[in-house]
Amino acid sequence: MFELLPHRFKRIGMIIAPTGFFLWVIMQIGWITEISQFIGLLNPKILNVSSAILGFSAFLFGTYALTFSKEKIEDEMIRNVRLESFQFAALLQVVFLIIGLTWIGFMKKPPKDAGLMLFFIIAIFIFWIIYIIRFNYIFHIGIYKYEK
Predict the structure, then answer these.
(1) Residues of 18-41 as b/e, b for ≥16 C-beta within 10 angstroms?
(2) What is d(CA 3, CA 129) in angstroms, rounded to the nearest whole number?
(3) Are 127 and 96 in contact (CB under 8 A)?
(4) Which of 82, 103, 112, 113 matches a 20 to 30 Å C-alpha distance to 119?
């Protein structure tokens, strides 16, 4: 059976995931290149690649920590909500991929390699973000409404 991480990893994931996503986004926008030129680096490519890898890896580790860490009280209901959230996120990811690839197929100028890579990275992000949002909504807000 798969062992979940201790509950303290949820806090770690809440810090690392947004930080990694922010680092990846500022690299995509081009701010890393501007900063490296401001400080006098001649070749910002190494800094760009390393910040992209670090940001993406930090985001994935943070979402992993958020997803697979235990709640304070881990019981059968939470396991059921966790499973349903995984199924819902997988279904929405498949729908996103079908619609996105169909849309790309009918484009007059389809994106090149970098555009397709970005599309699949977004597909990965969508799965984890939908899972985290749905699980926490049902667990924290849905159950709270039910108890009232």
Answers:
(1) eebbebbeebeeeebbeebeeeee
(2) 21
(3) no
(4) 82
Q: Give the Cα separation of 59 and 129 in Å (integer).
A: 11
For tokens 């680092």, the residue is 23
Percent of the chain past pLDDT 70, that is, above it, reads 95
Rounded to two decimals, the pTM is 0.76
Which two three-digit tokens encode residue 142? 């849905």
Q: Find residue 5's DSSP bridge partners.
A: 69
Nearest 5°: the CA angle 97, 56, 71 is: 85
Task: Dig out the tokens for 90 from the structure.
Answer: 């997988």
DSSP secondary structure letters along 17-77:
HHHHHHHHHHHHHTHHHHHHHHHT-S-THHHHHHHHHHHHHHHHHHHHHHHSBPPSS--HH
Tokens of 113: 């390699």
Distance CA 125, CA 32 (A): 22
pLDDT tops 90 at residue 78:
no
For residue 57, the model assigns a pLDDT of 92
138: DSSP letter = I
